[in-house]
Amino acid sequence: MKIFENIINHKINSITADELLKYANQFNIKITRQDAQEIANYLRGRNINIFNNIDRTMVIKEIAIIAGPETARELNKLFVQFTK
Question: Which is an annotated Pfam family here (predicted)?
Fold first, then answer.
């Protein structure tokens, strides 16, 4: 299963705003285009492991600063869906 974790983490670390919006729509998560752009810019190029609770919590806290706590909660739901 490690290969799937690597693929998902790679996608998170290289995600675009359009891809983020597509996944949010797919999982019925509300996010604005501007928030998606800012979040994608933040995530791109980082080495984040969303399967690690500490890493994911740190990222969600940073996203709350960037896009607000409600958007961060919504994005956390998306990350949890990816890890299932």
Answer: DUF2624
